[in-house]
Amino acid sequence: MPDDEKNSEETPKGLVFKEEEPSVTHHEILVNGKKLNYTATVGRMPFKDEKEEIEAQMFYMAYTLDGAAPGTRPLMFSFNGGPGSPSVWLHLGALGPKRVKMEDGQFAQPPHQLVDNDYTWLEHTDLVFIDPINTGFSRAKTKEIGTKHLGVQGDIESVSEFIRLYISRNERWNSPLFLVGESYGTLRSAGISGHLIDRGIAFNGIVLVSSILNYQTARFVKGNDLPFLLFLPTYAATAHYHGAIPKRKNLRGFLREVEKWAIGEYASLLAKGDSVTPAERRRMTAQLAKYTGLRPAFIEQSNLRINIHAFCKELLREKKRTVGRIDSRFVGIDGDHTSQNVEHDPSISALMPPYVSTFNQYVRQELGYKTDLEYFVFNKVIGEWNWGSAGQGMPDTSEALRKALSKNPHMKVYIASGFYDLATPHFATEYTLNHMGLDASLRGNFETGEYEAGHMMYVHGPSLEKLTQDIGRFIQSAWPG
After folding, report:
1. How wide is the angle at C-alpha 143 spanned by C-alphas 138 and 145, nearest 5°?
2. Angle at 449 between CA 445 and CA 452, to 5 degrees
3. Domains, the chain, ranges and CATH?
4. pLDDT tens-digit series, residues 21-32
5. What is the pLDDT of residues 129-146, one digit of tens each?
6. Which of 12, 169, 387, 468 could share a disulfide with 119, CB 3.0–4.6 Å?
């Protein structure tokens, strides 16, 4: 078969690989009593090979404040995680000028709606939402080319290249630069900060939403006891929320108590392995039951190590309910109440239709971007993901972030964590920060915020408001202007 026919066959249906004009529309929104006029630019950034032929296109959506001087106006690049997720969650949940109208803690009745976002970060910074290759409307010309982007390093390099191209094409090299990533996007952010500083691009600040920089803190595999310790405070918060343990007046104080025991006695006894005594096992079982609300027999049968998936199924088993991993305030209903694993994550099930449906309508109708392509959301790229030297999926980019800070000591980092996040627990984030080997002079560059919600804390109204206020202060501290 001739090469041109072969490439044509492999090219994703509905996508022509040529430079395209972005869709540009103009809008206004009222934020804190002030009218903001802004421009929305939607399109695909072309990635070219050594022959100057387009081999991939990365979809993006940019919002820029009208009338502002680009050289002094902050510019923030945003993406979500997965890996395999587009930027829709941060975009329509917290940052953008529109947000999804949600029923907190439950599935909202369709059809779903977008409303003006009174808490948009556009008040503080221009925004560029990036969909990595193989997510959203971003595509590679062939499967072989796409594979280059399906991995820790390839992903960092391609999103970094998008940032370079964007600031070059839009002449934003003098703008104060910020990153915001969520979940796997925090690992990407840390990697990008280290990758780009060696290419002359330094950031003023990075926002890590539901952070995970070291995957060892979240991989429940034999021989790795770390997650059993670090997830325990979130188990306790979840049990507290659902009434599985007695209510405490001070949730944060209670969690500090759990954290102290987890990293102290619990860690030392787990480290003893099979040499732990029967008396020690009984003591650990009783304490775990007290903090998690789980049955002592289940804890004992789990060898004193509670797996996240087992916890989500077991906590409310007697009520024939499960709890969410992304947000453990959400509850689900399984068909088989005797099984060991949940059928679905009720928090993801509640969020997926509202976000996907409103985005697809919004981008075509209001922003004028016409395409027949499917907007890929969690399109199973994780099964093909190349974790590189990390082996079984335990990458760690905290060292890249440390190096970036040592080269650019002006860079600030804000980390937002939810108490009910069973995907990237707040105590795992604290552990990672405490093991980065930061110079004492750089520790003050970090600021953390905690929210009484889950992984996507912005679906909870009070947490969304608090997050926006915290970020406004953070941007001001990282770039006084």
Report:
1. 75
2. 170
3. 3-216+351-478 (3.40.50.1820), 221-344 (no CATH)
4. 999 999 999 998
5. 999 999 999 999 888 888
6. 468
